[in-house]
Amino acid sequence: MNDNRTWRACRDYGVGAAGGTGEGRYVGGGVGRHPFAPGANRWALAPPRTLRDVQRLPTLEIVLVRHAEAVPIGTSPWAERDDERPLTEDGLRDADELALELDPYHFVAVYSSPYLRAVQTVTPTARRRSLEVHELADLRERRLAATPRDDWADLLARGWVEPDWAAPGGESGREAQRRAMGVLDLLRARHSAGGRLLVGSHGNLISLILQALEPTVDHDFHLAMPMPAVFHLQHDGIGWRVMGGHGFAPIEKRN
What we know:
It contains seven helices and six strands, in the order H-E-H-E-H-E-H-H-E-H-H-E-E. It is of the alpha/beta class.
């Protein structure tokens, strides 16, 4: 069991905060009225628009969770079925403890990678709220190659140095990152009324999501990420930003 409790998102990482007190890194566009409203002079020059003029969507928060400890890669009988690797006994206990840590927080929905280890990690939290775990295929881990390989660590490292490179049958880091950010856009559209979501995924894919928002995230960050790990993302109606998580200071402490 991970005795240092690095996933204590509620207390250490600002999960559930109503919003940051400072500016963050924004990605994406806003939603607002067309400057030429009905009845207006179509030929008049529209006044400059500011963020105050933009009709923002309500805030959406995502508690993004890397799965707990799973049986090692290559373990029989899952050597050829990586998506079916389950959590270890320690991993199952950590998933239960994570659910207790997140008890004070309301979630409107729970999503997960279809891989068993990710589903098992978020299921205790969902069960305590009588919520269904919705599986999204695009939350799956990045595939490094067509079949499991002994040199997977080398493939992983090269993918961080060369984001457009992929081994035969594998997915490049950039392709996986686009896929993952597409999931965030899907969830933003699906939950236009805002709220808080619990989302379970994997270390490589989560690192690529974080890198899209915080470019300093790299291979070393990925390797240092514990299992489980928790990150807090927020879409404030304009774009996504990282509010806190393992390896990040809460946003109010960064300003």
